[in-house]
Specification:
By secondary structure, the chain is of the alpha/beta class. The chain has a domain of 217 residues: Alpha-Beta Barrel (TIM Barrel). It contains 13 helices and twelve strands. Strand 1 and strand 2 form a beta hairpin. Helix 3 packs across helix 7. The protein is globular. It starts with a strand and ends with a helix.
Length: 313
């Protein structure tokens, strides 16, 4: 697996990372454990977690996996969204709920708003934030976090001076290596524009079909992209789609195959930021193996990726 160095923080990690949001949520323990083992065997060393994932249980689950491997891993986790008290009562019914969602996929969509009630967002008060970080350290079974990110933060939704003090205290104590944001790209731009936080790294969802007319970051920070597969061609500029279809066809790739588009999106994310990881949710052996191949390069020619970049800009 290809390694990258997050600049300017100097943290070395793999070009591909595993997004762990589904662990002990939509993905059960057995499948999650297999996926963690397979990603590690594939050379992936970057793992993205949060205090709220798995209704508050994912960090503990990952911590057990990480025993004896900690120095080989880059662990990113987040604070600001906490599992509610109701979430702690779900342990006994989660397997049944996963089975129901598998049989009736529309049920998950119908229940989405109720599931969101199981987490409390915007929890950036200094005392709560410190307690969340300490809980993550304990759950993960580690004395330091590589990347600590503010989860789904919004401009005006926190006190900058308090967050700066938190980041400085945690770094001074050796409990975190870098501090940053994990929110939408628009909110990332808005928060960075205020220049009030010691932001070293940002993480946001991104795919090449959303690049047109977006504002630049304008700040030298390390960038992590996630969810490159989250797009719909029907919601994309028709001219861009038509141009990319033509380029794929000329390269001998089937422009009508959805898999080709998803693989192209991952390759484009890698192409756009050779010095930062791309985080994907991947829990099937087939997807893990193929995504690892794409991360190592060669799935698409540099000429094609450059042409698609020009078309998407």
């Amino acid at each position: 697996m290809r390694f990258v160095t997050l600049e300017p923080v100097g943290i070395r990690t793999t070009a591909l990372g595993l997004g762990c949001a589904s662990i002990l949520g939509s993905v059960g323990a057995a499948q999650a454990h297999r996926a963690l083992e397979m990603t590690f065997d594939a050379g992936i060393r970057h793992f993205d977690l949060a205090r709220s994932y798995g209704f508050g249980e994912a960090e503990v689950f990952f911590g057990r996996f990480a025993r004896g491997k900690r120095e080989q891993l880059t662990i990113a986790t987040k604070f600001g969204i906490l599992p509610s008290e109701a979430a702690s009562r779900l342990a006994l019914i989660k397997p049944a709920a996963r089975a129901a969602f598998s049989l009736f996929p529309r049920l998950r969509t119908a229940m989405r708003s109720r599931l969101e009630e199981l987490a409390e967002s915007g929890k950036f008060e200094p005392k709560t934030a410190r307690q969340s970080v300490e809980a993550s350290l304990k759950a993960l079974g580690t004395d330091y976090i590589d990347l600590l990110l503010m989860h789904d933060c919004r401009q005006g939704g926190f006190e900058p001076a308090a967050m700066q003090e938190l980041a400085e205290d945690l770094k001074r104590a050796g409990k975190i290596r870098a501090f940053g944001l994990a929110t939408s790209r628009d909110q990332t731009v808005a928060v960075l524009s205020e220049r009030q936080l010691p932001v070293e790294v940002v993480q946001f969802g991104d795919n090449f079909l959303s690049w047109r007319n977006r504002p630049p970051l304008l700040h030298r920070v390390a960038v992590i992209r996630h969810s490159p597969f989250r797009f719909r061609l029907e919601d994309t500029d028709p001219a861009t789609v038509a141009t990319v279809r033509r380029l794929l066809n000329e390269a001998g790739r089937d422009p009508t195959d959805p898999v080709v588009w998803r693989e192209l999106s991952l390759a484009m994310a890698m192409h756009a930021q050779p010095r930062g990881p791309v985080v994907c949710s991947m829990f099937s052996p087939k997807h893990i193996a193929r995504n690892a191949q794409i991360a190592d390069g060669g799935a698409f020619s540099e000429a094609l990726l450059s042409a698609v970049t020009e078309a998407a800009a």
